[in-house]
Design goal:
It is a single chain. This protein has about 190 residues and is an alpha/beta fold. About 40% of the residues lie in helices and about 15% in strands. It folds into two domains: about 25-100 and about 145-193, 3-Layer(aba) Sandwich (Beta-carbonic Anhydrase, Chain A); about 105-140, no CATH class. It has eight helices and five strands, in the order H-E-H-E-H-E-H-H-H-H-E-E-H. It is globular.
């Protein structure tokens, strides 16, 4: 059976058996007033919320490759601001992880894989000459700690961030769930507030 067929068959049974009822206790507003930016790594899907003692409805969780913010006016920052201004989040957590696939990623390899899977070299060439720097866009990081610090700095220094918003940086270990503090948003606000 194809993946989509499996999902649709399961979903039909889920709805008919009212499996959704246990999730009806939440709303679109995060109970713990948190917005989290973390990596899309599959190991973190259930581990991260458990390691943070979060249940369904506690936090807004935004995922991307590497938990990286690259632009102060990109989609990730927009989602953070919407969570803070419209969805009652009051704190921001940037959470990277050890053994991240974005560590040391080589954009040349990614482009080679694109070409191997059918993207024409001409498309890559056209993008490069259209002002799109694929190699910068596809670059990961050498240090997860530095990446978390950089993303935290983008959020903390954003001109639209509500004043006195704690922005925390953490690293989680994908095997144990252990959290390592990179930067404490409360301490930062006390020192710079």
């Amino acid at each position: 059976m194809r993946k989509m067929d499996e999902i649709m068959a399961y979903n039909k049974e889920f709805v008919q058996s009212k499996g959704y009822e246990e999730y009806l206790t939440t709303t679109k507003f995060p109970e713990r007033r948190m917005v989290i930016v973390t990596c899309m790594d599959a190991r973190l899907t259930e581990l991260l919320p458990k390691a943070m003692n979060l249940k369904n409805g506690d936090a807004k969780i935004i995922k991307n490759a590497g938990a990286i913010l690259t632009s102060p006016f990109g989609n990730i920052m927009r989602s953070i601001l919407v969570a803070l201004y419209e969805l009652n989040a009051h704190e921001v957590f940037i959470i990277g992880h050890h053994e991240c696939g974005m560590t040391g990623i080589d954009p040349n390899n990614v482009v080679a894989h694109m070409e191997a899977r059918g993207i024409e070299k001409q498309v890559i060439h056209t993008l490069r000459h259209s002002g799109i720097n694929l190699f910068r866009w596809l670059t990961g990081f050498d240090s997860v700690r530095e990446s978390v610090e950089s993303s935290v700095d983008i959020v903390r220094n954003h001109p639209l961030l509500p004043p006195n918003t704690p922005v925390h940086g953490l690293i989680i270990h994908p095997d144990t769930g252990e959290l390592e503090m990179v930067t404490d948003g409360y301490v930062y606000l006390e020192a710079h507030g």
